[in-house]
Amino acid sequence: MIETTNRQTNKPYFYLRTREGFKEKELIRQFVDFMPHGMYNIKNKQGNTILISAHTLSTARRRVENVEIECFNSKDYPNILIDEQIRFFGFTKDIEDERNRRRNQNKPKLNYGIGTTKLIFEIVETISENRQRMIDKFLSLSEEEIYKLKLSAYLIQKDNNNPTIQNLSRDEAIACQNLKFNLKTKSGYYFVWTFIQDNLDDIALLTVYLKNDSIPKNTISLD
């Protein structure tokens, strides 16, 4: 079931396509509502912004193989400044503390651990290393290819009764779809991302898949 609330928001439509009942994502949103596009923002050394949706952060935590891994070396992520790494650790710690403060005895503690952070940082590194390939692929798409991809995304939203397209004509709903791409980290995790409104400087992460999972459907591969 998709979220059916129709509240005022500055978030892009793809951010709202979340499942109900995941309190973790609602909690994350309380910490990111004031940020651009309502998502956590990481800047790499090249100055590009990578937006991390609540869905991406929560799926990374649930799908990483080892949340409790203990080793961490900041030098493994040369495209992320140390200050940005520290800021992200503080961000996840604040969410953990707030969730655990609210929890009752029947709920397990929320813990992002080193494993989740390492996966997010590895995704940012993968994006930074493949940036030019991503842009080249985007620019190489024909109008027909773009239309087919957007049509496919629209049909999925239509089948799910997505409220963000209910007041749009078919052509308007198709045109507003974002093109979704996939990449795979060196450790074997596929993730899905999109350019922000055809702005090739900024990228939004949409979700993370299980390690060695199959290629995400209805997405564009760089290979």
Structural summary, described in words:
- The structure is a single chain.
- The protein has 223 residues and is α/β, with parallel strands linked by helices.
- It has helices at 13-16, 23-32, 54-63, 82-102, 113-129, 131-140, 143-159, 170-175, and strands at 40-43, 49-52, 181-184, 189-196, 199-211, 220-221.
- The chain has a 6-stranded mixed sheet.
- The two termini are 33 Å apart.
- 28% of the residues are buried.
- Residues 1-21 have low confidence and may be disordered.
What are its keywords?
223 residues, alpha/beta, six-stranded mixed beta sheet, 8 helices, 43% helix
Strand content: 15-25%
Helicity level: 40-55%
The global form is globular
Largest sheet: 6 strands, mixed
Radius of gyration: 18 Å
Compute the number of strand runs.
Answer: 6
Task: Output mean pLDDT.
Answer: 84
Order of helices and strands: HHEEHHHHHHEEEE
Main-sheet strand order equals 1-2-5-4-3-6
Structural class: alpha/beta
Distance between the termini: 33 Å
